[in-house]
Amino acid sequence: MPNALLPQARRRTLRRRGVALEIVTLCWNIVGVAVLAVLAALSSSVALVGFGLDSLIEIAASAVVLWELSGTGAARQRRALRLIGAAFIAVALYLLVQSTVALLSGHHAAPSPGGIAWTAITAVVMFGLAFGKHRTGRELENPVLVTEGRVTMIDGLLAVAVLLGLVLDLALGWWWADPVAGYVIVYYAVREAVEIFWPERVADAADDPSGAADAGAR
């Protein structure tokens, strides 16, 4: 629910900032899809292929938020949140299957300095954008922007995981580090999808005195 106490001028400023953040994310990932397609083809890296597909999902998520920011309403926000939740599920399913197949088949990638450089830069950019979206969405009290900020955070985490896998493969010859990198992101993607589609479970876990999980306490 929008913050009724927020001045209209401030609300307009925050909306413009949110739109700008999403446009930067959208443009970065459009370029990234093309770059990653070339790098993945050259290196035969499962992690880079997965990262490229994740960038496609991030493009879709940014488009959803830009659509949502153009109007208001609870029903519109729920539809947008469900679309973002579906993007999380798509990321998790793809990475789970692709990483498992790569491990079982003993797939050996050929990581390149280009792939390492791109994922390192992307991680920094995505973390910065995620922070901006979270801060702007919280002040605006826009759950769609806050949630999409977590999509961007996962994109940054995926970049770090892919970067680690590429570096370990290149430096130590640990070929399995490339597909294993995907499993880290599966956990985060599933967790965020659960928070969107079944928020009551997250709330119950946060209230559990055993402290087994505090996924909703953010």
What does this structure look like?
This protein is mainly alpha-helical and 218 residues long. The protein has seven helices and no strands. The chain has helices at 8-43, 46-69, 74-105, 113-140, 143-172, 177-197, 199-207. Helix 1 runs antiparallel to helix 2 (46-69). The protein is elongated and about 55 Å long. 39% of the residues are buried. Mean pLDDT is 77; it is low at 211-218.
Features:
218 residues, mainly alpha, 7 helices, disordered C terminus
Helix content: over 70%
Count up the helices. 7
Mean pLDDT: 77
- Main structural class: mainly alpha
Taking the sheet with the most strands, its summary is: none
First-residue to last-residue Cα separation: 17 Å
Radius of gyration: 18 Å
In short:
With 218 residues, the protein is mainly α. The chain has helices at 8-43, 46-69, 74-105, 113-140, 143-172, 177-197, 199-207.
Layout of SSEs?
Blueprint: H1 8-43, H2 46-69, H3 74-105, H4 113-140, H5 143-172, H6 177-197, H7 199-207
Helix pairs in contact: 1-2, 1-4, 2-3, 2-5, 3-5, 3-6, 4-5, 5-6, 6-7
